[in-house]
Structures are given as structure tokens and as C-alpha cells.
Amino acid sequence: MPELPDVEIFKQYMDATALHQKTDSVRIRNKKVLADVSSKQLQMTLKGRRFESTTRHGKHLLAQMDNGKFLTIHFGMTGFLKYYKNTDDEPEHSRVLIRFTNGFHLAYVCQRMLGKVGLADSVRKFIEDRRLGPDALNLDMETFHRMLAGKRGSIKSALMNQNLLAGMGNIYSEEILYHSGVRPTAQVKSLNSKTIKKIFRNMKKVLDRAIECRVDPAKFPNSYLLPHRHKGEECPRCGATLQQEKVNQRTAYYCPECQPG
DNA sequence: AGTACCACCTGACGGC
DNA sequence: TGCCGTCAGGTGGTAC
């Protein structure tokens, strides 16, 4: 699930709950989710600290502690955070549990364990190490235009390429192309300047709207593709049957009428 | 540089 | 009911 808007909501959730609480102990339920850090190392680094602020870059959440270090969280396809008090309320598939001195817990939940929890010294270094592009909500049109210049391959692959720009996955790249009237398979080099600008504007619009809706599917406008992306469903705009196609091994839905090329 | 394929994981769903 | 293949919104490695 988690793409940029989802992670932004997790950030807001963490800001509203675990921030400024003193940590008591850390329990690792499954160390497969640890990224280049041992259980002991993570426990030692977190113990007795407070999270002071959070930063999101693309699909990554980084929480800075009062020792300057960052806890880094990636959510894979099934990850989320849960703040709760009673031990009985520990969610299923909890992988890392942080207990605070106020008796509350913050659980990193990740059913499929495709996400990662780790440590970083700085946001800049974390981004560099992972070769992440600029955050999709934090770049201007010129940069966007420049980064696509000379790119081969489909526009959907480009939008989903975290090294190019960070934050978009299958769902939102698809949604943005739907609003822009561009087929997911369209080659980047076939798009004119006007279309690129349109895609850029829609990227901002769609991501902002998703955050505004708190990524609750029920709150999305009916004119969005997201609530309709099921086999055989109709385009909310023109009524044509939505098509699906594999683009880079991922299912891409589109409207054959509204997205001609 | 881009893409195909596989791997990492778990669970839901549909067909038989 | 059970077994099996397929699929799921992510990422990384390898081979072409």
C-alpha cells in the first residue's frame, strides 16, 4: 500500500502520538525487517531517547532522536504504524515494538515483511546512499522536465523510478496518468512539453488530494481511478470499460478512451 | 539505460 | 474442504 501519501499520513500519525515520548525498551519480533542493523544495535541506539521530529522523503519516514540519529522506516507493501497502550492491543504482524515510559507502545506492523527499519546519521546521507531522487512533492517543474529529458522507456516506469523522483508507486503513477490523459505505456520521448507540464501539475494535485483524503478510499472523489480499478469496471468519466496491461511487470489500469496516447 | 525475471514474504481469492 | 496457481499498492540483484 504505502506510497507517498500513505507515508505522509504515517508521519502525521507519529507526530501526533509517539513524538517527544521517552523510550523505555525496544523489542524486535522479527529481525528480517531490520536494515543493516542488529537487534542489539537498534535497541541500544533507541533506549532512553525521545523522537524529536520526523521527515518524509518519498516513501521513507525518518524520525530524529535527541541523540541526533534517525530511525528510518520503510513500509514495503503492507506496513503501517500503531500507537497503543495495552499490551493486549498489540496488532497482528508487529515486527518492531517501541515501548515508552508513559506505558504506550509504537508498533511497526508489516505483514509481508517487505519493509525495513534501520538507522541513519542524517537525512542527506540516507538519501544519497539510496540514490533517491527528489521528493515528488518537493520539486519544481523545471527539475521535473529536466529529469525526463532524454529518458527512454515508458512514462509510468519513469514516474515509479525512485532514483528519478521519490514517492510514487503503482497506484499513484497510474492515477496521475489517468488525469493527464496519457497511457501508462506511452514513451517518455513521445511526450511534448505541454503534456509533461500537465503530468507535473496532476502529480501535485493527485498527491495533495490523497493526503487531504487521508488516503481513505471512501473519501476519494468518484472521478478518481482508484475507487474503480477493478477488472471490468467503467471509467468514471466516459463509461468505457477500463483496460489493464502489464507495464514493467506491474498491472496498469487505464481508460482506452480518455487516455488515447 | 532500460527491461525481464527472479527473489524476498504472507495471505486472499478463485477454480477445480 | 482442500489444494494450487495467481495476484497484491515495494524493492533489489542479475543478466541481457
Number of strands: 10
The helix tally amounts to 7
Helical content stands at 25-40%
Helix/strand/pairing category: alpha+beta
What is the mean predicted local confidence, pLDDT?
95
What radius of gyration results from the CA coordinates? 20 Å
The biggest beta sheet is recorded as:
4 strands, antiparallel
Strand arrangement, largest sheet?
A: 1-6-7-5
Query: Globular, elongated, flat, extended or rod-shaped: what is the shape?
Result: elongated
Estimate what percentage of residues fall within beta strands.
15-25%
pLDDT under 50 segments (min length 5)? none
Order of helices and strands: HEHEEEEEEEHHHHHEE
Q: Please give the alpha-carbon distance between the first and last residues.
A: 27 Å
Question: What would the keywords be for this entry?
Answer:
261 residues; alpha+beta; four-stranded antiparallel beta sheet; DNA-binding
Task: Summarize the structure in words.
The chain has 261 residues and is of the alpha+beta class. It is built from 7 helices and 10 strands. It has helices at 4-16, 39-46, 123-129, 141-148, 155-160, 170-180, 193-212; strands spanning 23-28, 51-57, 60-65, 70-74, 79-84, 94-100, 105-110, 116-120, 243-247, 250-254. A hairpin with a 2-residue loop joins strand 9 (243-247) and strand 10 (250-254). The longest helix is centred in the C-terminal third of the chain and has 20 residues, at 193-212. It is elongated, with a radius of gyration of 20 Å. The two termini are 27 Å apart. The model has no long low-confidence stretch (mean pLDDT 95). The structure holds a DNA duplex (16 and 16 nucleotides).
